[in-house]
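hey
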């Protein structure tokens, strides 16, 4: 369980946002038929889950701002930097492949989940290089 107030608030926010994300994706999937035209209504409905994704980013930034322990803050920021670097490298590399070859196109939707997986890689980097993966690992 979370050890300090910032971690407890972070976990509450992330659970609420995760539930909202799942619910809005399911609702959008139910309301918008396959291959629907991009009307103002379908675009608005389809973008509602993006609000939860934006909420995830806000919750992570808020967590960093609320952390009192500078060491834990450094571990979290290192994780985010590794995730960002990995995501940018993969997206740029694949984008170049798409530009010059006929590899399959990757939906932009996958950028954020890849970044989230990059957080796990960042935890491993912290563990290997510093010996501590942080409180959320």
């Amino acid at each position: 369980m979370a050890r300090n107030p910032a971690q407890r608030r972070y976990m509450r926010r992330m659970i609420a946002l995760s539930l909202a994300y799942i619910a809005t994706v399911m609702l959008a999937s139910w309301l918008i038929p396959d291959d629907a035209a991009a009307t103002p209504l379908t675009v608005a409905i389809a973008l509602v889950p993006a609000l939860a994704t934006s909420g995830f980013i806000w919750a992570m930034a808020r967590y960093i701002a609320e952390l009192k322990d500078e060491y834990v803050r450094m571990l979290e920021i290192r994780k985010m930097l590794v995730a960002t670097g990995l995501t940018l490298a993969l997206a740029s590399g694949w984008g170049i492949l798409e530009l010059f070859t006929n590899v399959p196109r990757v939906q932009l939707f996958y950028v954020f989940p890849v970044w989230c997986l990059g957080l796990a890689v960042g935890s491993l980097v912290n563990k290997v290089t510093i010996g501590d993966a942080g409180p959320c690992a």
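DSSP finds four helices and no strands in the chain. The two ends are 11 Å apart (CA to CA).
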